[in-house]
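Handout, section 3.2

Students often ask what a structure token actually looks like in practice. Rather than define it abstractly, here is a full record for LysR family transcriptional regulator. The first block is the sequence as you would receive it.
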Amino acid sequence: MDTRFLESLLAVVDHGSIVAAAQAQALTPAAVSQRIQVLERELGQTLLERRANASSPSAACRDLLPAMRRIVGQAHELRRNADPAVAQGVFRLGAVSTMLTAAVPDLLMDLRRRAPRLELQITPGSSAALYEAVLAGTLNAALIVAPPFPTPFGLQQHPLRSEPLCLLVPQGHPARNAEEAFADLPHIAYDPESWGGQIAARYLADRGLMPQVLCALDGLEVISDLVASGIGAALVPEWAGLKKARPLPDGSGYQRRLVLLTRVTHERAAGRQAIIASLTGTLATSSLPDD
């Protein structure tokens, strides 16, 4: 049974005549009439009581109307879920700060093209907090640093990019490695409690370095600004957009992995898939500064 024929029948019921239904559906009256005749043959029932300038549902049609409306509504929902261009609703996405500036503008442009009616709500936060929000179901997905532990059943990581550890020193400072930098500069630490900061802390521990800590921050942009002011040095991942960073000789062994964290679901809603396609496509292909 073609649900478009049911839509034509419902249009006649709602508008009171075949002519009015045809106008509402941008069809000819003959086409609407033919559709209803097909339905009557399939169901073995007279569905309309036809008069000169009006039509009304028969008793059999009135009994079937609730089921018909459900079928048509479900067909509309199916089409929305199958076609990103008509996907609607809200997708709640979390993102760490560096991803907000590096990824979100391109993501919004790509998503507008893929699913123009979908609304994206973005929540900033730390990787740990956003992880918990996805786990709890208050976020649909999050752009975070890969957790330093196995994710439980029910969560899925989509790899996006890896960022090697690098050195930030004030402009003109001659340091070529961490040992030389922290010999005369205090450490502006990437918060060792954060998942990304744990990587920098491990780098220092592996080399037995214990520089004087000036402060510890989770905001990489703020760390970069403080280093540029000349008050210290830092070890940070080489995030997209970072400028004037110095590669570490062995920084590739200490990489911050960025992932898109989602819940494992059998849902195939077009809006959700459009978001994931935009994220993985935009971010996985985005360029990093040369090592």
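Discussion prompt for tutorial groups: The chain is about 45% helix and 20% strand. How would you have guessed this from the sequence alone?
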